[in-house]
Design goal:
Mean pLDDT of chain B: 92
Helix content of chain A: 25-40%
Helix content of chain B: 40-55%
Low-confidence stretches of chain A: none
Number of strands of chain B: 4
Mean pLDDT of chain A: 95
Shape of chain B: elongated
Shape of chain A: globular
Order of helices and strands of chain B: HHHHHEHHEEEH
Largest interface: A-B, 36 and 27 residues
Radius of gyration of chain A: 25 Å
Strand order of the largest sheet of chain B: 2-1-3-4
Strand content of chain A: 5-15%
Distance between the termini of chain B: 69 Å
Number of strands of chain A: 17
Largest sheet of chain B: 4 strands, mixed
Largest sheet of chain A: 5 strands, mixed
Structural class of chain A: alpha/beta
Structural class of chain B: alpha+beta
Number of helices of chain B: 8
Oligomer: heterodimer
Strand content of chain B: 5-15%
Strand order of the largest sheet of chain A: 2-1-5-3-4
Chain lengths: 588, 180
């Protein structure tokens, strides 16, 4: 034990850490937070920004704390005047080549560069030099790239490559002209990008942002009500996370306040994406049972995550026949709002304006897909706001979110079971599907409710569940490198899987590309973040009367009144979609 | 696993990629299959493409990415990092302006500007008619002739800004003259 432990001194305090620990980690053990920008605990080392430099006895030059491992007897100074000066100089040089438009920047107040500059004591601009000039790339439906705000830390490149397995970004050129972007420095919409938005989450500045939809929503909300009837639907993950934007602890469920805030913003009807989720389960469970009976290929792959769907089309088009044809909960609810709901309300479909609040930026892309448009070409979902965008709108409107009274969703498209709430967590779609499938297979209305094997934020989970004497092999993956692993296993044909849930983002929708940035003392991709948010969803589920999607009375009524049979002709026309191989083909 | 519908576009992409590259390059990439760290051969592959084709087109790089299964962003990232790789077709004549110390103090910047104005291109580019490519270089070892401009393998020096158009004209004329 002891021979694998290293004793060193940091700022005159002695600390013992395992061999192989970096100086940065060893310092953390003593409660010393060495500043960092390019470093990320979940990504490979870059050593690019140099902000974490420390002074080590016996060395004339400074060493980077993130990339140097400790050694026996090492004596480290993290806060000498020389070090503080060096760090300040480094940040000043970064700022020298930065737009410095903080007041009008989307990340004002939540920018890591801004915070580091303040913490390190940069109080004036000493250098004035050449500034790099690059155009903004806003061709993508989801992700906007602003290279002038990039500080070349490389986090986006690493998350795209290491966590998502997409590898759509690289540094191009060299020296002062270096710029991060997709292949050939082309446009993001013409690249291997799958729109998951994890680059936005890990970017310390505003070099990556979601495509803004707030302006179109403000405009819609200002229209006379006989022109547009404005409908909104928040996804399950929003209620577990948006409280963070208003100073509430991570994992505070705020469903009631969220509904009231949406009403105050002026939405005419507040529906729940959960209703769409319950409907998805009915359709998907039926699709699954049909395939289990031999009609169609297995395993069935879920299709709720639009980042995953893009990945499927660009990286694994050969797996398209295995993927569920079910639209996502958002698109199902949008479709119903402009068909059945509009009809009952006596409105034309084009009078309904649908705004979806999503934890996801890829949903903006999904909404714009021609497959999700009405016959005249207008989309079923008119605008998709991320959690961050909605939080900003609420603040901008002067709504005191924390002290809002609780509201309730409108009926019937706001009624949902607990199975729908857990859609936001990795494994949630699987669990919801199993709850319904188990009842359908056994005929026992008191079938199992909780499937512990599929819970938790592990990247890849596998289990075999026994339902009505049938062994069902399931797998749940989040983060697309894990999806690769499971898809390759399916392709090699070793084990027969029956049902696989795939979510693009690490941790599931609760840690989606559109969710609030974590507090400054927490890293994006910290598993605690999706864990705490998911806990809120499981709590909501636990506290509900209805726990299974097919128990939702509004769903049963909808089939009886409008849709007919699950997977039937009308359900197929309205609630199902199709996929196609998309170029450029990504490299697995 | 079994599916009745075939949605795989790989055979088509593979065929198109193979058609876009010289056979020697395709063979070389094929030979890397199964080798450890075969992706580290990327620069060697790009060298070979440029040797065969004179430059790296987007089509070339896309084909390399697909056949070698190296992400395209990585391929173009590497190709744009090294000065050696040409991302535009090479002109018939290669103009190299020396920007070494001696040439620079003797006015190489003025020569460069005159060349760029005359040709209507910047360093690293090729004229629309495909006649000239413009590049800069550091010290050709002929400092006594500073400032010098090397066209193909011919060194011109000392060059004055006024002489630039005369020199270019000479090359254009030579190309137009009927072959003896």
């Amino acid at each position: 034990m002891t021979e694998n432990m290293i004793t060193l001194t940091i700022d005159s305090e002695t600390v013992q850490v395992p061999k192989g620990t970096t100086v940065l980690k060893a310092a953390e053990k003593l409660g010393i937070h060495i500043p960092r920008l390019c470093y990320h605990p979940k990504l490979s080392l870059e050593g690019a920004c140099r902000i974490c430099v420390v002074q080590v006895e016996g060395f004339s030059s400074f060493l980077t704390a993130c990339s140097h491992e400790v050694w026996e007897g090492m004596n480290v100074q993290t806060n000498s005047p020389e070090i503080r000066q060096a760090r300040r100089d480094i940040v000043e040089l970064l700022l020298d080549n930065h737009p410095m438009d903080c007041q009008t920047c989307d990340r004002d107040g939540i920018c890591e560069l801004q915070k580091q500059a303040y913490r390190l004591g940069v109080r004036e601009r000493l250098f004035e030099g050449k500034r790099k000039r690059f155009p903004i790339d806003d061709a993508s439906e989801s992700v906007v790239r602003t290279p002038e705000k990039c500080i070349l830390c490389g986090r986006c490149i690493r998350v795209c490559k290491e966590v998502q397995g997409v590898h759509n970004l690289s540094q191009h050129g060299r020296g002062f002209e270096t710029v991060v972007g997709p292949a050939n420095l082309g446009k993001m919409d013409d690249s291997a990008c799958i729109q998951c938005g994890q680059c936005i989450n890990v970017c310390p500045t505003a070099a990556f942002l979601e495509k803004d939809h707030t302006e179109r929503v403000w405009q819609a909300l200002a229209l006379p009500r006989d022109v547009k009837h404005i409908v909104v639907q928040p996804a399950p993950s929003i209620r577990a996370a948006i409280g963070e934007c208003f100073g509430m602890p991570i994992g505070t469920p705020v469903t009631g306040k969220l509904i009231t805030a949406l009403r105050r913003l002026g939405f005419d009807a507040v529906f729940d994406t959960n209703f769409g989720a319950d409907l998805t389960i009915i359709e998907e469970a039926n699709e699954f049972l049909r395939r289990m009976s031999g009609d169609g290929p297995l395993p069935l792959l879920t299709s709720c995550s639009p980042g995953w769907v893009s990945f499927l089309e660009k990286f694994y088009p050969e797996m398209i026949p295995f993927t569920s044809t079910c639209k996502s909960p958002m698109s199902m609810l949008s479709t119903l709002s402009k068909t059945h709901y509009a009809e009952k309300k006596g409105l034309r479909p084009d009078q309904v304006y649908m705004v979806a609040i999503m934890p996801c930026v890829a949903k903006k892309f999904e909404a714009a897909r021609p497959e999700h448009a009405m016959e005249d070409g207008t989309p079923y979902t008119d605008a998709v706001l991320t959690t961050r965008e909605l939080a900003w709108m609420i603040k901008s409107y002067g709504i005191d979110f924390q002290n809002l009274p609780d509201g309730e969703f409108d009926r019937p498209l706001g009624i949902s079971s607990g199975a729908a709430d857990i859609f936001g967590a990795t494994g949630g779609v699987m669990e919801a599907a199993l709850r319904t499938a188990a009842v359908k297979l056994t005929g026992d209305e008191l079938g199992p409710l909780v499937f512990e094997d599929v819970r938790g934020v592990t990247g890849l989970k596998e289990a075999t569940v026994n339902v009505a004497g049938k062994e069902i092999n399931i797998a749940v993956s989040n983060g697309l490198t894990n999806a690769k692993t499971i898809l390759e296993a399916v392709k090699s044909g070793g084990k027969q899987y029956h049902l696989i849930e795939i979510m693009a983002c690490p941790g599931g929708c609760v840690a989606g590309g559109g969710q609030p940035y974590p507090p400054f003392d927490m890293d994006v991709l910290d598993p605690q973040l999706p864990k705490l948010r998911a806990k809120a969803l499981y709590q909501i589920d636990h506290d509900k009367q209805l726990r299974r999607s097919h128990e939702n009375p509004a769903i049963a009524h909808l089939y009886a009144e409008f849709l007919g049979e699950p997977n039937g002709e009308k359900a197929h026309a309205l609630l199902h979609t199709h996929y196609h191989a998309r170029m450029p083909r990504g490299i697995k | 696993m079994s599916a009745n519908v075939n949605t795989d576009n790989w055979p088509a992409i593979k065929a198109a990629s193979e058609a876009a590259l010289p056979a020697r390059v395709v063979e070389f990439i094929d030979g890397l299959k199964g080798q450890t760290h075969s992706e580290s051969q990327l620069i060697a592959i790009l060298h070979m493409v440029q040797a065969e084709c004179g430059w790296l087109s987007q089509e070339h790089m896309e084909a390399v990415a697909q056949l070698a299964q190296i992400p395209l962003a990585k391929v173009t990232g590497v190709a744009t990092f090294y000065h050696y790789f040409r991302l535009q077709p090479r002109g018939k004549h290669m103009i190299n302006v020396c920007l070494g110390t001696a040439c620079y103090v003797k006015g190489a910047d003025k020569i460069s500007q005159r060349l760029m104005d005359n040709l209507g291109i910047a360093f690293g580019e090729t004229t629309k008619d495909g006649m000239f490519s413009l590049e800069s270089t550091r010290c050709l070892g002929t400092c006594g002739l500073a400032p010098v401009v090397m066209i193909d393998d011919q060194v011109h020096g000392p060059v004055t800004p006024g002489e630039v158009s005369l020199i270019l004209e000479k090359y254009l004329k030579k190309d137009k003259a009927p072959k003896a």
